[in-house]
Design brief:
- By secondary structure, the protein is of the alpha/beta class.
- It has 2 domains: 116 residues, Udp-n-acetylmuramoylalanyl-d-glutamate--2,6- Diaminopimelate Ligase, Chain: A, domain 1 (3-Layer(aba) Sandwich), CATH 3.40.1390.30; 125 residues, Udp-n-acetylmuramoylalanyl-d-glutamate--2,6- Diaminopimelate Ligase, Chain: A, domain 1 (3-Layer(aba) Sandwich).
- Helices cover 35% and strands 25% of the residues.
- The protein has 10 helices and 11 strands.
- The chain has a 6-stranded mixed beta sheet, sandwiched between helices. A 5-stranded mixed beta sheet has the order 1-4-3-2-11, sandwiched between helices.
- The longest helix has 12 residues.
- The chain is elongated.
Length: 255
């Protein structure tokens, strides 16, 4: 399959263009020729030297990641940036990136994957960012005891051996859950306003401790990497349906 066809299909499915004005990431094809024959596609959360090297070792023609290289462009291609880009060009490895589009996709997205894990029903978009959403909200068929929700995430996610953190300031039962993966504590007030019992995200900021305590809401910090493996894995399954060979590169950070 031609690279341009893969890119066009991904852009359409993930609504890449709709996030252009709200995402610092340059989503879509970041590195690669306009035309190339693609047979093998690798997937990873982070576009970094380790995943580039492993994709090259796997003879991949394209690497699809959630966190790419360009966040508003490059001033200079030197140092670490050069060391990352050079192997891609030298080995004809194209790089496709989907950041916020892959967070917010209602079926393939990271938040959708966490909602699936927690068996949430009655789902709705959550995490407003301009005209778009980057998360989901839903209700548990059987409300969770707070410790059970934390344990469900800790047992199922690749946390790199780290414990899931839980700010236990909400009700004794958790029924309504809001999700923004990665770094999502900025949406705490939206979760409170929506009546959520808990906000599930990846990593926190110092201020969220007191904000959650004062608002009476649980905050579960399950790891930035761990909460953002769902999207690239879901896209991998989609690309396999297109007849391309795929591989997933697991590089947990524990963060």
């Amino acid at each position: 399959m031609q690279l341009s066809s893969v890119v066009d299909r991904l852009d359409e499915e993930l609504r890449t263009a709709d996030y252009a004005d709200v995402d610092a990431s340059a989503n879509g094809l970041q590195i690669g020729p306009e035309e190339a024959e693609i047979e093998r596609v690798a997937f990873a959360v982070d576009g970094v030297q380790e995943t580039f090297d492993r994709a090259i070792d796997a003879n991949a023609d394209l690497l699809v990641v959630h966190h790419g290289l360009s966040w508003g462009g490059f001033d200079r291609v030197t140092g670490r940036t050069y060391n990352r880009i050079a192997p891609l060009i030298e080995n004809d490895l194209a790089l496709y990136v989907s950041h916020l589009p892959l967070d917010g996709h209602p079926e393939l997205g990271n938040a959708a994957g966490v909602a699936d894990l927690l068996d949430l029903e009655n789902r709705a978009p959550f995490g407003e960012l301009g005209p778009e959403h980057i998360g989901q909200r839903g209700t548990a068929a059987d409300p969770y005891a707070p410790a059970d929700l934390r344990d469900r995430l800790e047992s199922a996610l690749e946390t790199g051996g780290q414990s899931v953190q839980h700010l236990d300031f909400g009700p004794d039962e958790i029924a309504d859950v809001a999700i923004v993966t990665g770094s999502g504590t900025d949406w705490l007030d939206e979760a409170v306003a929506a009546g959520a019992d808990a906000l599930v995200t990846g990593e926190g900021k110092q201020a969220v401790y007191h904000e959650a305590r004062e608002s009476g809401i649980h905050v579960v910090l399950a790891g930035h990497y761990a909460t953002e493996t769902f999207g690239v894995r879901a896209v991998q399954e989609l690309v396999e349906e297109w007849g391309l060979e795929t591989t997933y590169l697991e590089v947990p950070t524990g963060l």
